[in-house]
Amino acid sequence: MNTGRRHIVTVTLVLILTGIAVGTFSQTHHPKDYFRSPLDIPIRLSGNFGEIRPNHFHGGLDMKTESVEGKKIYAAAEGYISRIKVSPWGYGKTLYITHPNGYITVYAHLKRYSDKIEEYIKKYQYNKESYPVEKFPLPSELKIEKGEVVALGGNTGGSGGPHLHFEIRNAITGYVLNPLLFGFAIMDSIKPVIRSVRVYPLSDESHVSNLHSPRYLKISGSSGNYRTSASNPLKLQGDIGFSVEVYDFLNYSHNKCGIFSIELQKDGERVYYHEMETYGFHENRYISSHVDYGEFKNEGKHLQKSFIAPNNRLSIYKETLNRGVIAINDLNIHEMKYIIKDSYGNTSTLTIPVQGHLYTAAKREGDMVRKIGPTKEETVLLPADTGLVNKQVKNSGGSEPNVPASMGLLPKLPEEVLSVNFVKKFHWQFANSFKNDDVRIFLDEGLLYEDVNFEYKVTDTLLGAVAPTHHIHNVYTPVHKLYSIAIRTDKIPNRLKGKAMVARIKNNGRTYYEGGGYEGDFIKTTSKYFGAFTVLLDTIAPRIRGLNIYERKNMSKASNITVSIYDKLSGINTYNAYIDGKWILMEYEPKKSALVFSFSDLGKYAPELSSADGKRGSHTFKIVVTDNRGNSSQMSLDFIR
């Protein structure tokens, strides 16, 4: 048996025999002196583990490389290269090292690999004739020593600047673990900074200061001690939820980072607790339910909720009482208290005095119909019996489930306070659908985090579109996975149907390609977002422009060939380049819209250039670029070398 695999099996047996669930580690089990730093400069972080990102938790540490590319990246421990992935997107050039103690370390956004790894993966790329590749070497192929230089730091993929993204994963489950628990020399003596707190009524009978809508509380304090600014306790009634906006800062860094744990207490009793020690990538999308998604979309705030929606299955929740929903059904004064820690134990607290307050009817913010979607203090209000509210239709997935009232964990509105665009209720447990003559929507079960009062409307056709704009619910409600959308289009010739694409329209008017293929008169696709959709025709081929090459240019002293590629609508799908008819590897950098071929590949991976007399000669460079609707462009230039 291979030594690395034997160690992994041993770790598995120990975990099982000791009753510890595989994939979950107590902090006391993290080796503090096993891994060395992957850099030879002091570790300064621009991002840490568990930090809130738009659609995922940050799964590692972003280590600064002094704002430059090319810093040496070292193996954190001995092991073997178990995976190499090259992509223009995401992690860019990435390296995975499996270690004999049951962990995998990950190194991402690399500029290039060390010579032996670079040669290994480039041969594979030329064999596949593809820049994006993924390879899983055998344990015997690329063995690595602790401290060996394995790569140079870079800015590839979705990186916003030169840095190293570093992860530690469980080799058995693939779960990521918090690297800050492994003893790296990182200075952090700063307590978490609490920016804001928000309170939510969670049932028809609930209110916050006599309002049936969420409310921000003014807070004061610093250096770990915070409290609400009001002189009197906050008046509450019914089922209530809280959320908090909090960040951590580390010494020698101005970047906002994530925190390790959030605890909420009521009168000294824990009602909610989560911690960022480990999680699985399959859980990432649940972050849309963990945060106040509407406030994130509307205000850019990262409010972490302390109450859990029925279909939020994150494993970070370690202890809750009634899923974090707090019942205030008396007239007593209570103390709500947040206790927030970073990975080094620096602690901040926020105290919120509250008092039960009976009332007969919650005040409403006016009698007029309000614009759908969150505002500064969100609620959607509509006068009763206006005749504008469509009647509820039976949900296609079945009858309404018997869910306790406290499980509807987003602010609830009385039935008469529905949007003018309401069409039916979608239930999170079941499949849901909506259709009319022009659009068909289908969500499989489990795609919603809680019940949704589904809305739909249609508006005028945009300039250049071949279908009206269909508003599928609203952008302030998250969807967990892909759901299907089909839109009818009229009078499109068959020859152009292959050029049609569903486009999602953002608030700023920009359109995003969502794909699509025809089934009868409908073009059908899938999306992970609610919002506005239309259908566009993409008949324009990508644009290609030489940046350092032109017809008959002498390239004898050039180190590379660089071209720019761009597509306005559906985006770049494939690109292939050739010299004298032989395929060459061009690295794609979408941030710069650039493709780059290195002449150093000649003679090693690609054939040497040849001429009749063995001297400089004329050669032909050709590139072909195709977009996602099949439109293709090519450029052919002769050059001297």
What does this entry look like structurally?
Helix content is 7%, strand content 39%. It has 641 residues and is mainly beta. The protein folds into 4 domains: 3-181, Distorted Sandwich (Glucose Permease (Domain IIA)); 193-356, no CATH class; 405-537, Chondroitinase Ac, Chain A, domain 3 (Sandwich); 543-640, Immunoglobulin-like, CATH 2.60.40.1220. Strands 12, 13, 14, 15, 16, 17, 18, 19, 21, 22, 23, 24 and 25 form a 13-stranded mixed beta sheet that branches. Strands 1, 2, 3, 4, 5, 6, 7, 8, 9, 10, 11 and 20 form a 12-stranded antiparallel beta sheet that branches. It has a 6-stranded antiparallel beta sheet with strand order 26-29-30-36-32-33, with no helix packed on it. Residues 1-27 and 362-407 have low confidence and may be disordered.
Straight-line distance between termini? 52 Å
Counting DSSP E segments of at least 2 residues, the number of strands comes to: 45
CATH arch. level architecture of the largest domain:
Distorted Sandwich
Mean pLDDT: 88
Q: Main beta sheet: strand number and arrangement?
A: 13 strands, mixed
Q: What fraction of the residues are assigned to beta strands by DSSP?
A: 35-45%
Low-confidence stretches: 1-27, 362-407
CATH topology of the largest domain: Glucose Permease (Domain IIA)
Helix proportion range:
under 10%
